[in-house]
Amino acid sequence: MVGTGLASKLVAKGHDVRLGARRADNEKALAWAQSSGERASNGTFADAAAFGEVVFLCTNGSHALDALALAGAEALGSKVLIDVTNALEFPQGGAPVALSGNTDSIAERIQAAFPRSKVVKALNTVNWRVMADANLVGSGDHHLFLSGNDPEAKKAAATLITESFGWKHFIDLGDVTTARGTEAYIAFWVRVRLALGTSSFNVKIVTDTTALP
Ligand SMILES: NC(=O)c1ccc[n+]([C@@H]2O[C@H](COP(=O)([O-])OP(=O)(O)OC[C@H]3O[C@@H](n4cnc5c(N)ncnc54)[C@H](OP(=O)(O)O)[C@@H]3O)[C@@H](O)[C@H]2O)c1
């Protein structure tokens, strides 16, 4: 859902996009490429990583490193890697549990395993439709969070996300370890989603400006 949702919007905005999967003949990826015009193509994770100037990681969070291992360090190079993944478990009869967040995060594991990649955690705090079109909610007056070690990579990611998906407001949380916060937030997000009965929502951060130092 996330991969094809973002890929379709990027193609509509004039980007060439190669959608990766474990197998080059992945049916969903093939169907997306065949129905999305000449700027769209598909291939293996390695093909997609080698093709892109920027790489979006939209895999199952628990298998993010497996997918990136298939992509390979050479294909990923020193590109900006926008990591939108979360890892969540739904124990039978219990509340959802985020599988990362307190002392570790998927984004940190990726940055450690692929030190040349410029990992930027972003977009993982909203549903895929909102990711691809911020204006779906509150005319875009709400926030997206960024985590990553490289300030220029965060700037580049924010520019692409603004131009392609209409996001206006970003909060740079800091280095890649701050992804622990947004990856843990997903367990709260699920509870809000259940309470509201819709996935089309987001948060806006407001401060008491009189209390700032
Ligand atoms: N759905 C949302 O609205 C939403 C919102 C925020 C964040 N996210 C996060 O975005 C990510 C994508 O979510 P999704 O629902 O679109 O897809 P998903 O079902 O979580 O993941 C599908 C992707 O994971 C890959 N994958 C699955 N098992 C794998 C394995 N063992 N090794 C390597 N790759 C594997 C699949 O590859 P193949 O194509 O080869 O099967 C496919 O590319 C997730 O991390 C999710 O938590 C989703």
Short note summarizing the structure:
The chain has 213 residues and is an alpha/beta fold. Helices cover 40% and strands 17% of the residues.
List the total number of helices: 9
Q: SSE order in H/E notation?
A: HEHEHEHHEEEHEHEHEH
Strand content: 15-25%
Strand arrangement within the widest β-sheet reads 3-4-7
Number of strands: 9
**Helicity, in percent?**
25-40%
Distance between the termini: 43 Å
Which keywords apply here?
213 residues, alpha/beta, two-stranded parallel sheet, globular, binds NADP nicotinamide-adenine-dinucleotide phosphate
Write the layout of secondary structure elements.
Blueprint: H1 2-12, E1 17-21, H2 27-35, E2 40-44, H3 45-51, E3 54-57, H4 64-71, H5 73-76, E4 80-83, E5 88-89, E6 97-98, H6 106-113, E7 118-121, H7 128-132, E8 143-147, H8 151-165, E9 169-174, H9 179-196
Parallel strand pairs: 1-2, 3-4, 4-7, 8-9
Antiparallel strand pairs: 5-6
This protein binds NADP nicotinamide-adenine-dinucleotide phosphate.
Description:
With 213 residues, the protein is α/β, with parallel strands linked by helices. Helices cover 40% and strands 17% of the residues. The protein contains nine helices and nine strands. Strands 3-4-7 form a three-stranded parallel sheet, sandwiched between helices. The model has no long low-confidence stretch (mean pLDDT 96). NADP nicotinamide-adenine-dinucleotide phosphate binds next to helix 1 and helix 4.
